[in-house]
Amino acid sequence: GVMENLGLGPDVILKENPRLIYARLTGFGQSGKYAKAAGHDLNYISLSGLLSKLGKQNETPTFPLNLLADFAGGSYICALGIVMSLFERSGSGQGQVIDSSMVEGAAYLGSFVYKTQNMGLWSRPRGENLLDGGAPFYSTYMTSDGKYLAVGAIEPQFYKELLKGKFIA
User: Fold this and answer.
1) Is 70 designated active site?
2) 40 is known as an active-site residue
């Protein structure tokens, strides 16, 4: 990476100060055929398999802004690694090297989808599951003024209130 090219890789830096926490966040990881490739959120969520789960069946997958890989899969996972390393250092006195990639982070975030497929929660085609727009009580609807109303009434007590019209203005 860039830091290694500058002579500031983790081996050099940690030799100078073994208490340092050295975090690296890349798109595709430190090794493999894409390690040195440039990319964007869309590339990362595609390679993680998560893009294939977004949107309606028989339509182009929906773009989730750049939140899944760049922010949640990348920054959040890396920041969590830093926090855990700080905690470890408070006991051991030793720094850590954190390697995280946006593809791996997005795949981790999407693991819920894959793990729940066997439970029936996410076993239908894209756009027909409980949490991906397939349930009328957990979806969005266009209003008469061209805006949208989000409905999230999964639990029975909230669904009951929805049917009474208590959430609709």
Assistant:
1) yes
2) yes
Instruction: Write out the chain's pLDDT in tens, 169 residues.
Output: 789 889 999 999 999 999 999 999 999 999 999 998 999 999 999 999 989 888 888 888 988 888 888 888 889 999 999 999 999 999 999 999 999 999 999 999 888 888 888 787 788 888 888 888 889 999 889 999 999 888 999 999 999 988 888 665 4
Handedness of CA 104, 107, 109, 115 (dihedral sign): negative
Q: Which of 70, 99, 132, 145 is catalytic?
A: 70
The CB density around residue 44, as the number of other CB atoms within 10 Å, is 27
Q: Is the pTM of this model over 0.85?
A: no
Domains of the chain: 2-122 (3.40.50.10540), 135-169 (no CATH)
